[in-house]
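Field notebook, page 288. I keep forgetting to write these up properly, so this time I am using the form the group agreed on. The chain and the ligand, adenosine-5'-diphosphate, are recorded exactly as supplied. Prediction of the bound pose follows.
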Amino acid sequence: SVPLGFFSGIGTASKNGILIKGSNYLEYLSKAEIFVFDKTGTLTKGVFKVTKINNQKDISEEELLEYAAYAEYYSNHPIGVSIVKAYNKDINKNEIKDYNEISGHGISVNVKGKKVLAGNSKLMNKENIKYEEVKEIGTIVHIAVDSKYYGYLIISDEIKDDAKKAIEGLRKLKIKNIVMLTGDSKVVAENVAKELNLNSVEAELLPDQKVEKVKELYKTKSPKGTLVFTGDGINDAPVLAIADVGVAMGGLGSDAAIEAADMVIMNDEPSKLIDSIKISRRTEKIVW
Ligand code: ADP
Ligand code: MG
């Protein structure tokens, strides 16, 4: 039978906006040693703004943004959503065909009869497009139309104030290893990691590379300790599934992530982890 303390722990957590899918996760949480975070939507707001449009000579700024917005029309990714919002004009869906979102890369789609690519340097490399190297902080979305490079958009995100609170809280609880894994570029990732004083950061990872990194981290913890992964969920379901405790953001998170997670933070504030750990440590004391 399950000791009563577990139920009160889950109950207390749920009153605090934290859903925990089983009593075992409270136990694992009380033993957490390594915290792994996704960046976008988890430590950063995930509400991107287009801050720069850099068009090549043979296309206008407006046309470049138009191709980008058509390409991203069906995307739920925060990057795609921000591009459609920046365009802010009606989009004729009949002109969008063969939509294909390539996770960790971007979009390949037919717009007005032309093959449009919108994504990072990995996507450009994959499709053999020569692109401009950009060394600015921000997520770069390159655009190519019928194999011709047309320029890029820079999209910026902000660190959540609550992320600072979360990391500081974890330090107070004596968590020594806090890691960020992200699909985003090195410049952006390192900037966030420095700002939040994280122990380490790995960037430009595809979803299965995130899984590999988590497996490597498992080897560095003590036998009794556990690993907690927290993500907004877009492309994170595989890592959520292998972590001892997989935590998803309930607001921004995708249905697949909420499904794959062991815990859900309803209001997307990572500092809820601190409350959860405190509840779990208290509950463990009551139970044992
Ligand atoms: P993370 O959430 O860690 O940033 P993702 O796997 O969601 O990782 O995305 C990784 C990278 O793939 C993004 O930073 C971006 O460069 C590119 N990307 C993903 N989806 C899109 C999209 N819809 N449009 C353009 N680029 C995208
Ligand atoms: Mg993500």
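OBSERVATIONS:
- The CA atoms of residues 189 and 203 lie 6 Å apart.
- The radius of gyration is 21 Å.
FOLLOW-UP: compare against the apo run.
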